[in-house]
Design goal:
Helix content is about 45%, strand content about 10%. By secondary structure, the chain is α/β, with parallel strands linked by helices. The protein has six domains: about 70 residues, no CATH class; about 170 residues, Rossmann fold (3-Layer(aba) Sandwich); about 60 residues, Helicase, Ruva Protein, domain 3; about 140 residues, Zinc Finger, Delta Prime, domain 3, CATH 1.20.272; about 70 residues, Alpha-Beta Plaits; about 30 residues. The protein has a five-stranded parallel sheet, covered by helices on one side. A three-stranded mixed sheet has the order 8-9-10. Strand 8 and strand 9 form a beta hairpin. It is extended and about 100 Å long. The structure holds zinc ion. The site of zinc ion has 9 residues, from helix 5.
């Protein structure tokens, strides 16, 4: 009756327990494929059959299930306090309290997502109830531990405040507080995302925290402790779980991969660790994604492709093109990257990250942190020395505001404009530090040891780098090529950094058309500009002739007319509309919009599929909208 196609991803190992997951993907297909039902345990097959007959009785279907093994993050969830990564202080304090029996009645666990708050809460619940605890660690096997671990013991209540914010939800779980635990030594209430509780819910909770019953333990976990009322915070013993350093995550991933027999390059691991941004759980789920993508030896390229990350060599060469003012090359890099599926915004954000690193390095090398890889560090050092900090700062500002603006335009187009603008800055802001003329150049023209940039054609003065761990195997010509190609910017070309343009500068009078003029005037007098949008422009040359309706004649004041003429720097004639024919810009737009609508409609009417559909459903064509446009009504 049913045919299962069960896909199991690589790395599942023998620990995989094939239980259908609730997020299984069900797709009815007409064709049947070979079943891989051998991957299912008898129990899960049975569950699946029940499930399928409930949702699709009578109908043969092919069901594709993407499922069936515990993800890394679940498999590697710590079973003991000592399994926790990077939270040694918290763990030691807790274990001391547990082994000496000096537990508070309420705890508050704070920290970013994925550092182990819920895990610690569950371990605490197990530790206070374990029948044979060892040094504060739960044994993990006694009936109490097993019941809590599987979530089946009713004396341990877990509540997700994100979905249960109301006072009734809190009351419901607090109702049982005054009754003693049924099977365990201590009742435990775990409230996850506690900051999401409503005010009245907090009040209800507060009452209980003020007069805690015997044998009850409250554990609140939150990512935003500031949002908790001070009255609640002051009644809890607080633990701050720390965000993990990239190196700690890398080490942990290496350990996990080793245990799972997954081969991975160290730079691939480092890239995952960096993307995890301090969270162990994120690191494991990201690793999971990469494993689903690549089933061989994990490389940096795999990680970048699977996680949509931009490689440092790409960002470095982009940065490079920008500082050498090569807009063509910069856009080429961007297009190549988008061609490979990168989002322009991601690339630009990575660029801002790179520039931040450069800026850090210019202030103090220790700010860079130890997580930067040697190759990349060499590149940074070389470039930080070659750039003036003002130039970097100016470009950073322009980049950030440009990234912000990407939301209002087509992303790729906006990104290209931004790159051109950044290159344009070279005309007003010198790139290299003004104080170091000769020496700066000398530093720059040295080669970096295998810096992460594609080799270009330029020759090289191969002076060995100081501090280099190894001799330069691949000459790194591009940086130096660009700097050499930079005599455009003379050292004495000292410039005020800001502004980019505009401000006191008089308006350009070289508008070629009426529309452009009105748009520009919109920045000066938006109200008048909006009215001019409805005015017919009869002539636009050395002089400008406008035709106004009666209403417009009243609306556009003499002062506004004078202001416009002065701003434009041309003679403007304000005539009556009854002597002229033609259309205003707004009329022209309306007409084009109507024509477009009509074109879409005719296209739809001629479309055989639409026709068939209308006939089939006895329907009428009401409206045709361009793709991506929501109906206005
Ligand atoms: Zn136990």
């Amino acid at each position: 009756m049913f045919d299962f196609d069960v896909m199991r991803r690589k790395g599942s190992g023998s620990k995989a327990s094939a239980v259908p997951h609730s997020s299984s993907l069900l797709t009815p297909h007409s064709s049947l494929l070979t079943p891989h039902s051998s991957l299912l345990t008898p129990h899960s097959s049975q569950l699946l059959s029940h499930f399928l007959s409930a949702i699709a009785p009578e109908q043969p279907k092919r069901i594709v299930l993407c499922m069936s093994y515990l993800v890394l993050a679940r498999r590697w969830r710590p079973q003991k306090f000592s399994d926790l990564v990077g939270q040694n202080v918290v763990v030691r304090t807790l274990k001391n309290a547990l082994s000496s029996g000096n537990m508070a009645h309420a705890y508050l666990l704070c920290g970013i997502r994925g550092v182990g708050k819920t895990t610690i809460a569950r371990l605490m619940a197990m530790a206070v109830n374990c029948q044979v605890p060892v040094d504060g660690e739960p044994c993990g096997v006694c009936s109490a531990c097993a019941g809590i671990a599987s979530g089946s013991n009713l004396d341990v209540q877990e509540m997700d405040a994100a979905s249960h914010t109301g006072v009734d939800d809190v009351r419901e779980i607090l109702d049982g507080v005054r009754y003693p635990p049924t099977t365990l030594k201590t009742k435990v209430y775990i409230i996850d995302e506690a900051h999401m509780l409503s005010k009245s819910a907090f009040n209800a909770l507060l009452k209980t925290l003020e007069e805690p019953p015997e044998r009850v333990l409250f554990i609140l976990a939150t990512t935003e402790s500031d949002k908790l009322p001070i009255t609640v915070r002051s009644r809890c013993q607080r633990f701050d779980l720390r965000r993990l350093a990239q190196q700690e995550i890398s080490d942990y991933l290496a350990h996990v991969f080793g245990a799972e027999s997954i081969a991975a390059d160290s730079d691939a691991i480092a890239a995952i660790a960096r993307a995890a941004d301090g969270s162990v759980r994120d690191a494991l789920s990201l690793a999971e994604r990469v494993l689903a993508f690549s089933n061989e030896h994990l490389t940096l390229v795999d990680v970048q492709a699977a996680l949509g990350m931009v490689g440092s060599e790409l960002v470095c060469s982009l940065s490079h093109a920008l500082f050498s003012g090569d807009a063509g090359r910069a856009i080429e890099v961007l297009r190549a990257a988008t061609g490979r599926g990168f989002v322009p915004r991601t690339l630009l954000l990575e660029l801002s990250r790179l520039w931040h690193q450069l800026a850090c390095l210019q202030v103090d090398e220790t700010l860079l942190g130890s997580e930067v890889e040697a190759d990349h560090r060499a590149w940074l050092q070389l470039n930080a020395a070659a750039l003036s900090s003002q130039a970097l700062d100016l470009r950073y500002q322009v980049l950030i505001s440009g990234i912000r603006d990407l939301f209002v335009v087509d992303e790729r187009m906006g990104a290209e404009m931004l790159l051109m603008r950044l290159c344009g800055l070279n005309a007003i802001s010198a790139v290299e530090p003004s104080t170091l003329e000769g020496p700066a150049i000398a530093t720059v023209t040295r080669a970096a040891p295998s810096a992460p940039m594609p080799p270009a054609a330029a020759p090289i003065t191969s002076a060995p780098i100081v501090d280099s761990p190894k001799p330069a195997p691949v000459p790194e010509p591009e940086i130096q090529a660009a700097v050499e190609a930079e005599p455009v910017i003379s050292p004495q070309h000292q410039e005020p950094d800001l502004p980019l343009h505009d401000q006191a500068e008089p308006v350009s009078k070289t508008f070629s058309g009426w529309q452009e003029t009105i748009e520009a005037f919109g920045a000066v007098k938006p109200g008048v500009s909006a009215m001019l949008d409805h005015v017919i422009c009869v002539e636009f040359s050395g002089k400008v002739r406008l035709a106004l309706s009666k209403h417009q004649e009243r609306m556009i004041s003499v002062a506004d007319r004078r202001a416009f003429a002065e701003w434009l720097g041309r003679e403007v004639f304000w005539e009556s509309q009854k002597d002229h024919e033609g259309e205003s810009l707004s009329q022209e737009r309306d007409r084009q919009a109507r024509a477009e609508k009509e074109r879409l409609r005719q296209g739809a009417e001629r479309d055989p599929h639409v026709g068939a559909l209308m006939q089939e459903m006895d329907a009428q064509l009401v409206k045709v909208l361009p793709a991506g446009v929501e109906s206005e009504d």
